[in-house]
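A quick aside before the break. I want you to see a complete sequence-to-structure record at least once, exactly as it would be stored in a machine-readable document. Don't worry about memorizing anything.
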Amino acid sequence: LFDVSHRLWSEEMLQAFSIPREWLPSVSGSTEVSGKIAPHAAEDTGLVAGTPVAGGGADNACGAVGSGVVKNGRVLASIGTSGVVLAHSDVFQVDAGMRAHTFCHSVPSTWYVMGVILMAGGALRWFKDTFGQNSQERARSIGADAYDMISAEAEKIPPGAEGLQFLPYLIGERTPHQTASARASFVGATIRHTHEHFARAVFEGITFAMRDSLEIIKSLGIPIEQIRLTGGGARSKFWRRLQADIYGQEIAMVNSTEGPALGAAVIACVASGIFENLVEAVERVVKVTETTEPDARNVERYNQSYELFRETYSSLEPVYTKMHQQSNAN
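That is the input. The structure line, written in tokens, reads:
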């Protein structure tokens, strides 16, 4: 019912479905004060009566604010259980295939285009829990983190994992395939491939799937100058390097790893008058602490591997569909 391009309820939709306008709440922007804490709510929560309440934002919108993605050219890549690629846009744009989503940004009169994969860090966790018992035992024996151990193992293998590929579609996929039938697969295994190869293929496959969203953003003509990382995947130096090379873009870390929480706090600061506007607030609060430039040699290798990754999915898609149909029939 919401007209995202004009940032208000769609009169056309309301009329089409005979929905009275008064059924819907008023719409306010992220930094606009829409009310204040009432006395009875203050008693229930311990908050001070009269505290202003702002519109706020969705998790990824706040994550973008907390990572400084409030200007054209800046993109957010977040790797948690799922994986998000989000680009700021000063103009309203929609992917014709509806593979990505266009939402109102927290910055007034701007939007963001976002793609999401369902299993990013979740796929790595699955690999650790299913195939990483030895890695976990070695990590415990030296007091290390199991994920750091798997990263170190993967780093021993050259880019491309010597032809081994991983498709991370463990629970279907959202962007760009929009299907519940997709399956995860290791493809191209030979006798020379070791546990370390499989670990590298997992990291690369997740990042290739993230790149699918980036390619949609590029196809819309949205400029990409810098990709800012957040989430658990940003903590790994190996994965930061991998993302720079697979995306072929400068990667940046900022002074907060909790982008959504910081973004919500910055929005509250603007709403309460501490800062004049959101862009000014972000530029003062969010600072780049580290950048990683792509290695041109690896970029070329990964461009070829990425095209093969896409071709592999296209080839397996009808097989996945049959598998999905059979599993439902059983």
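Two observations worth writing down. The mean pLDDT is 95. DSSP finds eleven helices and 13 strands in the chain. We'll return to this after the break.
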